[in-house]
Design a protein that fits this description.
The protein is α+β, with helices and mostly antiparallel strands. The protein has two domains: 50-162, ATP-grasp fold, A domain (Dna Ligase, domain 1, 2-Layer Sandwich); 168-279, ATP-grasp fold, B domain (D-amino Acid Aminotransferase, Chain A, domain 1), CATH 3.30.470. Helices cover 38% and strands 23% of the residues. The strands form two sheets. Strands 1, 6, 7, 8, 9, 10 and 11 form a seven-stranded antiparallel beta sheet that branches. A hairpin with a 4-residue loop joins strand 9 (255-265) and strand 10. Helix 5 packs across helix 6 (132-149). The longest helix has 18 residues, at 19-36. Bound molecules: adenosine-5'-diphosphate (ADP) and magnesium ion (MG).
């Protein structure tokens, strides 16, 4: 008996002292499986282009990359209904000023580098740029900050974005748990997540109804529904976002972490301002 138990343990096969517990555990497993495959109200998002996302993800993995920041992450997310501010990449300070004139002011400039996922930390983000001259200066400042703090980072250039104002910042996240699989996280941006840890979680896939209860569950959800004379934000577009990230990771389990921080929710619609995706490391073949 003891030897058999050891063998089961070695192979991570559950083993119980009493049949009742085994049967109960088996029932739970069955319930979980039924729940996971429940044909509930379409869990699919309105926009879903799995093939296009698949091509992109494959090319990233083939290139041996496991973490992608804004540019690539936004492109993948765009195939699941996410929208972004207008943007364009500048390779030189002069180009930055030309693009700035085209996009219009105010704008935001950010370092574009496959090696940098936390742009603010390396002086790689400038908000509120209000003139062509300021755009040229910001280009030089951002590139020199990054060269100083991360001399080995490859720099594509500096991305210019239309600056979004108004709206409320929320965070959508995904982490991978070895027991539960993909967990979807929702919270309000800034101090609400970082200091108050006011977030809600669900196991993917998440339905629209569950997404809506994730939003209601956080302590600060009143801030989204319009308090002190403020207009409420577009809750449906947050639900779209939660269902969107949930379906991406359900379609592509190779994604182990995903962050949209922030997603800015307006009175109508929402825009993702920053995103990153981390893939499971492939076993080298
Ligand atoms: N296009 C934009 N319009 C308005 N605010 C922005 C825009 N992009 C970024 N921000 C603000 O700047 C912050 C930092 O930018 P982000 O791209 O998230 O960089 P990081 O890599 O440091 O997270 C964001 O949390 C957001 O508040
Ligand atoms: Mg961010």
């Amino acid at each position: 008996m003891r030897e058999s138990i050891e063998r089961l343990k070695v192979h991570a096969i559950p083993c119980f002292s009493y049949p009742e517990i085994a049967v109960t555990a088996f029932k739970r497993l069955l319930d979980f499986n039924t729940w996971k495959h429940r044909g509930e109200e379409a869990i699919l998002p309105h926009v879903r282009n799995k093939e296009k996302a698949d091509t992109l993800i494959n090319s990233i993995l083939r290139a041996g990359r496991y973490e992608v920041g804004e540019d690539a992450a936004m492109e993948i997310l765009s195939h699941y209904g996410f929208t972004f501010p207008e943007k364009a990449l500048a390779h030189t300070a002069r180009e930055a000023s030309a693009i700035a004139e085209r996009i219009g002011f105010p704008l935001v400039m950010k370092i574009s580098s496959p090696d940098i996922l936390h742009k603010t930390d390396v002086g790689g983000v400038k908000l509120n740029i209000n003139s062509e001259m300021a755009a040229e200066d910001a280009f030089l400042e951002i590139t020199s900050n990054v060269r100083r703090l991360m001399p080995d980072a490859f720099i594509n250039g500096v991305m210019l974005y239309e600056m979004i104002s108004g709206g409320k910042e929320v965070i959508l996240g995904v982490t991978y748990d070895r027991t539960f699989g993909h967990m979807i996280m929702f919270g309000l941006g800034g101090i609400y997540v970082e200091v108050l840890k006011d977030v809600s979680f669900r196991i993917a896939p998440v339905s629209r109804r569950e997404a809506s209860s994730m939003i209601n569950e956080i302590r600060t959800s009143a801030l989204l529904k319009g308090s002190r004379g403020e207009k409420p934000v577009d809750i449906e577009s947050i639900i779209d976002g939660i269902v969107g990230v949930s379906s991406i990771v359900t379609d592509f389990p190779v994604i182990h972490e995903l962050d949209i921080n922030p997603l800015v929710v307006m009175q109508k619609g929402a825009l993702a301002l920053d995103a990153r995706i981390i893939f499971e490391r492939q076993k080298s073949s």
